[in-house]
């Protein structure tokens, strides 16, 4: 498979999405607001309990700010442009391209998420890690990685998040192709992401009997595993195992999604003129 056309698609979509500066600023403001709310909830929780918790307050706060910084890397919905093409029948144009439709859409999804995440992530780190201590909110700040090993593993984990999340977006795109609407798939993916990734409640706070399942299911690789690697909650071989399951799920989802996409496109009928 030729790689250069897909890199070109990635660069073009990435450059296009970077133009939406107002959306990035609005998203950053909203994420700061919700970040403070979540931090206050955790602060009240830790102040009101004497029971030993799976992470301390500083780690929980770092978990929250990381979640706000990388929020748009999560697979919240189908690619809106692809959903529109499926509704209008313009998907036929993509079928005529001399490219594999699955990987063409896959790199589009990657660029769509990364381009929106880069400015928001930069602003969030500057605000939560640098500005907050200056204004006297050092206890609620975003702390830096625990050590160089955690930094290196986290960099690999974020790359894994992009690949895994794009594979999940492709499943939602595939559902759009099959059902000719993105509404049902979007309504299904959101609660799964919220509940199983750790986006609302970090997965270590769930009951102990659920932990083996929560660690190995694919949504853990979107939030819980990379963020716990960041502050040292997962280290050594356990962190390596977390990364391995992230990339393993990506391979499984891409392989299965590609086969399902091929079958769906072979049965797709486009009407209109």
Describe this structure in words.
With about 270 residues, the protein is mainly α. Helix content is about 70%, strand content about 0%. It has helices at about 5-15, 20-45, 55-70, 80-90, 90-95, 100-135, 150-180, 185-195, 210-215, 225-230, 235-265. Helix 2 (about 20-45) packs antiparallel against helix 3 (about 55-70), helix 2 (about 20-45) crosses helix 6 (about 100-135) and helix 7 (about 150-180) packs antiparallel against helix 10. About 35% of the residues are buried.
Short description:
The protein is mostly helical and 273 residues long.
What layout of secondary structure does this protein have?
Elements: H1 4-17, H2 21-47, H3 57-69, H4 80-88, H5 91-95, H6 101-134, H7 148-179, H8 183-196, H9 211-216, H10 224-230, H11 236-267
Helix pairs in contact: 1-6, 2-3, 2-6, 6-7, 7-8, 7-10, 7-11
Q: Count of helices?
A: 11
Shape: globular
User: Overall pLDDT, averaged?
Assistant: 90
Major β-sheet profile = none
Multimeric organization: single chain
Intertermini distance: 32 Å
| Structural class label | mainly alpha
Task: Give helix % range.
Answer: over 70%
As residue ranges, the low-confidence spans are none
Kindly state the number of beta strands: 0
| Gyration radius, rounded | 20 Å
What is the string of SSEs from the N terminus onward?
HHHHHHHHHHH
